[in-house]
Design goal:
single chain, 382 residues, alpha/beta, Aspartate Aminotransferase, domain 1, Aspartate Aminotransferase, domain 2, 13 strands, globular, binds pyridoxal-5'-phosphate
Length: 382
Amino acid sequence: MPLISKLPDVGTTIFTVMSQLAAEYGAINLSQGFPDFPVDGALREAVTAAMAAGHNQYAPMPGLPALREAIAAKFEVQHGVAVDPATEITVTAGATQALYTAIATVLHAGDEAIVLDPSYDSYAPAIVAQGAKAVRVNLSAPDFAVDWAAVEAVVTPHTRLVIVNNPNNPATSVFRAADLDALAAIAERHDLLVLADEVYEHLVFDGASHRSVLAHPALRQRSFAVYSFGKTFHATGWKIGYCVAPPALTAEFRKLHQFLVFSVNTPAQHALAAYLQQPAHWQQLPSFYQAKRDRLAAGLVSTGFRLLPSRGTYFQLADYSAIRSDLTDTEFARWLTVTHGVATIPVSAFYAAPPEARLVRFCFAKEVRTLDAALERLQGLG
Ligand SMILES: Cc1ncc(COP(=O)(O)O)c(C=O)c1O
């Protein structure tokens, strides 16, 4: 039977390739973005308790009311923003499902969505699967600042959506107030919707704070904002997150959500509802990760890598020109894995048309002993 692929250009992702290579060569895997330390025992026990208490059947389609209320309370503490748990929050199977659902909610065949590269790898395929077009705008090292005039220049009558990721994986950049103002001005001028991937909201360093689209009055009216409990609470395998959007957008989002997954893991929702009651559980995350960032950075200084500032996320970008300027970043990442036993991700993988650069991404969401073992292997590289 003839099958016409909806994603003819999609093959094995670089994350799978590098993790497989790491396993093959016994390399320390600082490539893929997941922690190697355990989930808090209190959260694990809360899931077990929820199962023991019989919470094992379907949750309500938009998410457990107690969890949506806890999320709303968190927004109030974090940003002083009121979000209606009944009409504005939907619990999803991870941020990836929330992103896909928001993209599918907004885009029809022939529409265009603006993507800022480097970008997380799920955005463009989700756009293309709707018969829509991903229009790319490149951001470049060292600061990956957004040229908002360049963004506005690619708006056409077909543009419906702008996708932003703040803090940005892999750029590690963080939006300033002026970025949100510029984004809002473009969205208002051209009547566009915004999809804000804010999964790294708690991973902002050096005393800076995360600026959510939900705390910006103009963007609040026209944005889907997406979050991930997997990222926030070191449980990427749980695949649970949520989407916040104004009632009219949420109503359409939920129409697709109910036929994609209907509802999400019930015991995990009970556990997270209880766990969110203590703001300390998320308020300590910046210092927890900043210590790991600083440990990796201090160790990398003597290896010949030139480090770019890591302002957010749990990644560190490093320029390897002084080590092997003859290699492309993909060749370098492969060489480093095979010959020095440390796996990273080449930054070009996050672009449709990569600019000239020699950068790889390290993930520092790792135990101190993992980071130290990787640093020991890298000594003497320069
Ligand atoms: C920017 C970004 N968005 C979304 C996700 C996916 O989140 P989840 O695991 O909750 O689907 C990731 C995971 O790496 C990410 O880096």
